[in-house]
Amino acid sequence: MSARNAGSVLDLDWISRVRVNHQAVLKRAQYIQSLKVSKKQWQAAWLLKAVTCIDLTTLAGDDTPSNVHRLCLKAIQPVRLDLLKNMDMHDKGITTAAVCVYPSRVADAVRSLKAAHSDLPVASVATGFPAGQTPLETRLQEVRLAVRDGAAEIDVVINRTLALSGQWEAMYRELHQFREACGDAHMKTILATGELGTFTNIYKASIVSMMAGSDFIKTSTGKEPVNATYPVAIVMARAIRDYYLSTGYKVLDPIILTCKIIIPIYHYVTGRYAAFHELPMA
Amino acid sequence: MAGCAAKTVYEIFQSMEYGPTAAPSAATAQAWLEHHSRSLGLFIDGAFVSPAGRRSCPLTDPKGSVVCSIVCSEDEDVSRCSSSAVSGYKSWSSLTCSQRSRVLLRLVSVLGLHGQCVSELCDLCGAACSPTALVRLLQFYSSWAQLRDALLCDWTPVGVVVVVTSDDSSLYSLMLKVLPALAMGNSVIAVPGRSAAPPALLLAQLLAAGGLPAGALNVLTGSDVTLGAKVAQDPNASFVTYSGNQQDGAALCKATAGMGLPVSVSLCIGPVCPFIIFESADMDSAVDEVVQAAFKKRKEVHWVLCVQESVSESVTARLKLRIAGLKCVSLRSDADRVLVDAAVEEAQQQGATLVQSCPPPPGSQYPPTLLCGAAPSSPFVVSPPPGPLLPVVTFRSNAEAVVMGNHSPHGHAASIWTEDLTLALETAHSLSVGSVWVNSSSVVDPCLPVSGHKDSGTCTDGGQEGLYQFLRPSGSTPLPRSAPGLMDYTRFGTEPSQAFIPESSEPGSSPQSYLQFVGGKACKSVSGCTMAVRAPGGSAVLALCPDGGRKDVRDAVEAAVKVQPGWKKKSPSARAQSLYSLAKGLEAKRLELAASLVSQTGVSLDEAGQEVDLSITRLSVWAAYCDKMQGGSLPMPQSGTALAIPEALGVVGIILPDKRPLLSMVTLLGAAIATGNAVIMVPSQKHPLPALAFIQVLQSSDLPAGVVNIITGSPDQLTVALANHSVIKAIWYWGSAQGRQYLQHTCASPVKSLRLFHQDQEGNDGGPDWTRSQPSLLQDLWRNAVQWKSVWIPSA
């Protein structure tokens, strides 16, 4: 990981100048999705890259140490070893980017990974995930506890109330405090784009999050009715580019994709389409 | 690509490079070509024919390998084709509207089966056209075929329509002319340019399979645009319409001059179009769109990026980032590379900064290139070379953006980017272009009526308005066909007019001397010369009128140009009031006008009175029309709002007919100014007095000075003056075959829209019967006095 995003002062003038044309973004998304994708080794390489960007996640009420353990092992070996060997990628460190769990399961995950001799980071959601509707005090405490339990990345959710009512300064201050509470842990800010109403709001929330020092910005919690969509990714990527142009920091936008990645890889290697039982289980 | 194939997964994993995109399959199209042994014939009378002994012309793909060969048609083929088109017209136009509609609709389902073959063939030949766009065209025009008699009653098809496109035109622009012509009941001879020829032949075959009568659509192929002129020369052709680049269009106009054939052109390939980014724009979307539009492989227009100064830095920064990731674009030929290199070098010499993703590799590949710091007068902006170059200019204010966008001879299209709706609409109204795309670019749909403004064309394509070029009012007579005479274009109209010399006449009865009307003032001609107006049949000098010339036209245009924008901007109801007051003024001078008609044409006082009365009514009719000639919102398949706006042409020159001198003048004058134009009228040389008497009515009216100008003199000399003034956008002409040929030849470049009517020495003409007020006749007149602009405002 390169130098961390130090954040910047809140530039409200910039925020007020943001303009996003809804239809143009939709059209752009349609265009990009209509482009032909590269095939063969290019497809395999790009998909493997996608695998290494994934936060392998379980965020359910029925999480126990056993399924968290399974998840950790899958994160270490997301693609079957024989497939990787076939592509000569088995020793290139193909793992997911992190394992992501609720704060109470952080200790379990850290233990499982340590037992497997892996230095994969554990990410923890925090700050009243997914709704963020808890007092600031408890949200901050949640961050501190997760860091204490060994989480190397903290997924914070933004306060949608502040974003929707245009209180960017208040949102900036909250995120700034989260960032301080994170300490050395990376802060990944979840915007919950499905609840922000407009692309313009998404753009503004992205910029404010980056100004407050987020190392990553993410689209959604997975718990809203609408989650990561292509147009939203375009808007966020443009905000990241905008932030890069003015500060020189490249904030990252992790790709949230499904396990559908593995099937084309399997197809590339074997020339066959895989059945479910042939893929790693979590 | 051999080197790429060896790349391992890990190497790509590290570099994150894109792989080669798989070449699209063309198996179906290849099979169809193979079925025709790779040498396509002509499509005449519902079947492929391969006449023996013709020169054939190879068609190559961008990589230089031969795709197939097409036949170069000769005179024999043309005459065979034209007789087939005549019989095709008979059988096609005798069908009912719903039968014609059904045939066109059937092609939609045929395309469903063979769309793959059509699109592959288009790709192979470099005339890209998606089957969905074709289906949309067919559906749109099949419904117009169905509704022709219901919504366009009182109009008849023109007959055999010749559709010509240039070599670089797409199949879409060919079909945008062919299908409405067919839908209105005409038969069509399509003369596609090289790249669109094979798909056009395939479509003709599919249409025939769908039940189109033999001969209704014939396709002739040839090596260049001279074939279009050859087909036009055939006596059976009744209308020629062209779509494509400027050079071939001008060549076609010149070659068909004097054939007695109306020609309309849409110069939609190669114009320079502004891409305007205001500070209130969604900059990221604008940048993505301009990159996509300006750097695609086969672009039909040249974009010039105009950016507001306050955001120019952030736009350029974004552009630089985007360009860095782009691959080189292949040019069409090595010759293009020479042009590109020369233009880039010239730009650098003039101080433009170059932004490229990589240094240009040798050969026919060139990287997307920004030329920052260009000026609208830079040669690479005025006449841009082919290739992926994008000049960037900056502007300070909204008004300057409009000035910059309009500062070009082209008036094809513009793309404007702002989130401010008021600004968007204001800019859209002020740009003189056929299509305005707000926060989008290059949207085409057959429901949008688009006329090329300025040098970009003389006809309207698309929408209901686009249908009228393939129709004429029932009962009107088409222009008589003629053979172009050998004429020296430099000498036409140079003959000095007959000097007026003192003659022996009875003392004390010196003829009355009239003045002409320029810029709101009655005045003598600049030269000071006068000419005699003679009484009907006699040699007696009735009056004297100024002998106007080039300089009078210049002054009149100057006055007209000054006042016309304001006149056009007036509300339609204000224009209506002016016309009503003109009618009232005419009524007040009823007796004088009637007397001038009597003395000039020798009609009885009763008849003259009737003509004056009809003229008063006609002016009131035009006044009433003023706020009824409107565009509206159009039903586009995409979500958003599309507006069709009729706009005045600008300054219209009219050489008036001899017949009914007052009524005809008032009718034409009304049509032109009701829609917001300014006019320069040349009264007939034979009967100028009523027009000159009308000047006093004009003087007492509240029309702004300069909207109406009347110049007397030798019509030929004034025709030359009008034809050679670039401001004048349209000329309506009654006169000799020679004059018509001169106009068609001279107004080919820069183009003017011409309405030509035959009039012989005796004053018999093929124009409308002025006393009838058939709605389609008046509609025909005002449709010729407007050009259409479509504004597309997409929304989610």
UniProtKB/TrEMBL annotation, chain A:
<dbReference type="InterPro" id="IPR011343">
    <property type="entry name" value="DeoC"/>
</dbReference>
<keyword id="KW-0456">Lyase</keyword>
<protein>
    <recommendedName>
        <fullName>deoxyribose-phosphate aldolase</fullName>
        <ecNumber>4.1.2.4</ecNumber>
    </recommendedName>
</protein>
<keyword id="KW-0704">Schiff base</keyword>
<dbReference type="InterPro" id="IPR002915">
    <property type="entry name" value="DeoC/FbaB/LacD_aldolase"/>
</dbReference>
<dbReference type="GO" id="GO:0005737">
    <property type="term" value="C:cytoplasm"/>
</dbReference>
<dbReference type="GO" id="GO:0009264">
    <property type="term" value="P:deoxyribonucleotide catabolic process"/>
</dbReference>
<comment type="pathway">
    <text>Carbohydrate degradation; 2-deoxy-D-ribose 1-phosphate degradation; D-glyceraldehyde 3-phosphate and acetaldehyde from 2-deoxy-alpha-D-ribose 1-phosphate: step 2/2.</text>
</comment>
<dbReference type="Pfam" id="PF01791">
    <property type="entry name" value="DeoC"/>
</dbReference>
<dbReference type="InterPro" id="IPR013785">
    <property type="entry name" value="Aldolase_TIM"/>
</dbReference>
<dbReference type="GO" id="GO:0046386">
    <property type="term" value="P:deoxyribose phosphate catabolic process"/>
</dbReference>
<dbReference type="GO" id="GO:0016052">
    <property type="term" value="P:carbohydrate catabolic process"/>
</dbReference>
<dbReference type="GO" id="GO:0004139">
    <property type="term" value="F:deoxyribose-phosphate aldolase activity"/>
</dbReference>
<comment type="similarity">
    <text>Belongs to the DeoC/FbaB aldolase family. DeoC type 2 subfamily.</text>
</comment>
Automatic annotation (TrEMBL), chain B:
<dbReference type="InterPro" id="IPR016163">
    <property type="entry name" value="Ald_DH_C"/>
</dbReference>
<feature type="domain" description="Aldehyde dehydrogenase">
    <location>
        <begin position="530"/>
        <end position="754"/>
    </location>
</feature>
<dbReference type="InterPro" id="IPR016162">
    <property type="entry name" value="Ald_DH_N"/>
</dbReference>
<feature type="domain" description="Aldehyde dehydrogenase">
    <location>
        <begin position="56"/>
        <end position="472"/>
    </location>
</feature>
<dbReference type="InterPro" id="IPR016161">
    <property type="entry name" value="Ald_DH/histidinol_DH"/>
</dbReference>
<protein>
    <submittedName>
        <fullName>Aldehyde dehydrogenase 16 family member A1</fullName>
    </submittedName>
</protein>
<dbReference type="Pfam" id="PF00171">
    <property type="entry name" value="Aldedh"/>
</dbReference>
<dbReference type="InterPro" id="IPR015590">
    <property type="entry name" value="Aldehyde_DH_dom"/>
</dbReference>
<dbReference type="GO" id="GO:0016620">
    <property type="term" value="F:oxidoreductase activity, acting on the aldehyde or oxo group of donors, NAD or NADP as acceptor"/>
</dbReference>
